[in-house]
């Protein structure tokens, strides 16, 4: 049998696909059960977090295993196989082990070095054990992954390379300065009471928030989390639990909201958030996309360009291009200026300027005069003044484009929202609301792509490589152990049979001599088998050493059922002795 993993993560799929493919708790259980029920697989475990969905299995056929696992992922995620396939990755044997060990160390996380993934791996193993879908291979693999992850965090500074997704998200909630959202003395609302929400609540408490409100569909879990926060010795936070229907009213009091539930639909809509902001500020939460980036154009003195330097539609459109008598190449007029303004005639000589003046005074540009809110008299005065300048200087001086008016500053957020759910809890349309700052999985993925990598990452990679080699050697050695045990069992049976035959030939043999002869024969057999069995274990532990078990069975004509029985006995004992 061979280890196979098929999955998708933030590195292989856009957040929109991950969001649609997210698995509920029941779906994860059914996926693991259906996998072991399929022909190619005998073991299965599902690792599903907010930014990855991976199916691990012990399969006897690679291609059939990939096809079956991919199909099962598509069926249980609800995303069509054709759409899902381009985003799937496949790892096999040592590459699969390397992948899980890297995940456990935080190397493959959205925030490099975060330690929360260890808890998620532990939970995945516990579920597979409860379902009896994890056998010897996946038990060994996941438990070793947990040890490798802990080793990486204890022996290196990988923690300096990143932090938990919660901490990173709260940091990203801050303004462009990167200082993070100011939490001290503020009020927080945490929606959900699972592991991610609990971590968020604890992080906020350590950051100094004054109050944390926990809302959850199961009241007991919310009350338990609130109780834990209130009893913590290292914080002074006041925590309380509320039902989910109290969320709208709590939104009007909260400064920071963290949501991470298992809901399949939106928990907070844009309208709900807008209502909360309006209740806090007394003013509607304007849609940023509807608000102009610059002030509206105003008339310039004496027919010049508007205050924002923009040309109106009439000034640059079809009305100008067909006017006879205009000396301007209207098709080439630079956008941003009125064809009546000073910038439009910059560089004209006196004769051309006079032609332009006649065109303006003749009324052909009446439509444009209306757009810049100036009358014919003002235009004529401007042209006369410009003509005088041209007569003196030869040409109208060039004028640079007016400086654009700075954008009006947007209001500081009054509500900070962190959405850590997959699929998302908070409507993405909230991004458009003024007075609100939203950070979700998609924006976290974009921010983490530019996060600096710590030098300690190289040390962790070295640890992972060494642990993958050691795990492979141990698995290959374990693969030949049942064969060695069966060989020694056969040898013991041969010794017992020969001693019994000796007793038949020498019935007068006393107990002392019988024991001495038996011990001598056993020592001879042990010495003959010692070197070959030790050496075959060493050879089997090396890459490509799997064939030594077959060679040993062939050379000594071992019964395959005897070897299989030893394997089943070892698996049974090993499973009972394993910690949960």
Explain the overall architecture.
It is a single chain. With 580 residues, this protein is an alpha/beta fold. It has helices spanning 15-21, 25-37, 62-77, 81-84, 94-104, 116-131, 136-155, 165-172, 195-207, 219-231, 247-251, 270-281, 313-316, 318-321, 350-361, 366-371, 376-393, 441-448, 456-505, 511-541, 547-555, 560-577; strands spanning 2-9, 41-49, 52-59, 89-92, 187-191, 211-215, 238-242, 256-259, 415-419, 436-439. It is elongated. Mean pLDDT is 77; it is low at 289-323, 332-339, 364-376, 397-403 and 575-580.
Topology:
Elements: E1 2-9, H1 15-21, H2 25-37, E2 41-49, E3 52-59, H3 62-77, H4 81-84, E4 89-92, H5 94-104, H6 116-131, H7 136-155, H8 165-172, E5 187-191, H9 195-207, E6 211-215, H10 219-231, E7 238-242, H11 247-251, E8 256-259, H12 270-281, H13 313-316, H14 318-321, H15 350-361, H16 366-371, H17 376-393, E9 415-419, E10 436-439, H18 441-448, H19 456-505, H20 511-541, H21 547-555, H22 560-577
Parallel strand pairs: 5-6, 5-8, 6-7, 8-9, 9-10
Antiparallel strand pairs: 1-3, 1-4, 2-3
Helix pairs in contact: 2-3, 5-7, 5-19, 6-7, 7-19, 15-17, 19-20, 19-21, 19-22
Key phrases:
580 residues, alpha/beta, 6-stranded parallel β-sheet, 4-stranded antiparallel β-sheet, 10 strands, 51% helix, elongated, disordered C terminus
């Amino acid at each position: 049998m061979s280890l196979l993993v098929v999955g998708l993560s933030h590195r292989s799929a856009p957040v929109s696909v991950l969001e649609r493919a997210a698995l509920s708790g029941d779906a994860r259980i059914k996926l693991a059960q259906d996998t072991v029920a399929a022909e190619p697989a005998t073991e299965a475990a599902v690792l599903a977090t907010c930014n990855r969905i991976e199916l691990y299995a012990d399969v006897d056929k690679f291609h059939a295993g990939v096809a079956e696992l991919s199909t099962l992922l598509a069926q249980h995620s609800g995303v069509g196989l054709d759409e899902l396939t381009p985003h799937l990755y496949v790892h096999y044997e040592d590459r699969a082990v390397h992948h899980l060990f890297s995940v456990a160390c935080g190397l493959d996380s959205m925030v490099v070095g975060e330690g929360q993934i260890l808890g998620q791996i532990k939970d995945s193993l516990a579920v597979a054990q409860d379902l009896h879908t994890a056998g010897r291979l996946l038990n060994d693999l996941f438990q070793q992954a947990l040890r490798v992850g802990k080793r990486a965090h204890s022996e290196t500074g990988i923690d300096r390379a990143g932090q938990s997704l919660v901490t990173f998200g709260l940091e990203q909630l801050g303004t462009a300065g990167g200082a993070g959202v100011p939490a001290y003395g503020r009020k927080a609302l945490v929606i959900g009471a699972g592991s991610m929400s609990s971590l968020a609540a604890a992080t906020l408490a350590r950051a100094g928030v004054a109050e944390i409100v926990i809302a959850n569909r199961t009241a007991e879990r919310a009350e338990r989390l609130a109780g834990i926060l209130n009893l913590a010795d290292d914080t002074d936070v006041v925590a309380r639990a509320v039902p989910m229907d109290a969320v709208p009213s709590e939104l009007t009091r909260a400064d920071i909201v963290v949501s991470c539930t298992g809901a399949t639909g939106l928990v907070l809509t844009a309208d709900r958030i807008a209502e909360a902001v309006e209740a806090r500020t007394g003013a509607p939460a304007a849609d940023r996309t509807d608000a102009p980036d610059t002030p509206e154009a105003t008339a310039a003195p004496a027919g010049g360009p508007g205050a924002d330097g923009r040309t109106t539609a009439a000034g640059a459109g079809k009305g100008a291009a067909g006017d006879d008598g205009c000396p301007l190449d209207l098709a080439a007029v630079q956008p941003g200026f009125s064809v009546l303004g000073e910038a439009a005639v910059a560089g004209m000589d006196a004769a051309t300027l006079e032609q332009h003046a006649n065109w303006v005074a003749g009324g052909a540009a009446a439509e444009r005069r209306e757009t810049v809110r100036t009358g014919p008299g003002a235009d004529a005065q401007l042209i006369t003044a410009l003509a005088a300048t041209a007569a003196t200087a030869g040409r109208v001086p060039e004028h640079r484009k007016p400086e654009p008016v700075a954008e009006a500053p947007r209001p500081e957020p009054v509500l900070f929202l962190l959405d850590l759910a997959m699929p998302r809890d908070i409507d993405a349309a909230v991004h458009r609301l003024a007075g609100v700052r939203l950070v979700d999985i998609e924006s976290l993925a974009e921010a983490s792509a530019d996060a600096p990598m710590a030098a300690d990452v190289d040390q962790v990679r070295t640890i992972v490589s060494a642990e993958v080699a050691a795990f492979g050697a141990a698995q290959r050695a374990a693969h030949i152990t049942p064969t060695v045990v069966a060989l020694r069992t056969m040898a013991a049976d041969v010794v017992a049979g020969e001693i019994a035959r000796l007793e038949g030939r020498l019935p007068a043999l006393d107990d002392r001599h019988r024991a001495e002869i038996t011990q001598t024969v056993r020592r001879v057999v042990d010495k003959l088998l010692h070197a070959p069995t030790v050496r075959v274990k060493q050879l089997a532990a090396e890459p490509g050493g799997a064939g030594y078990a077959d060679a040993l069975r062939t050379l000594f004509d071992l019964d395959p059922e005897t070897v299989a029985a030893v394997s089943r006995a070892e698996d049974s004992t090993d499973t009972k002795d394993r910690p949960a």
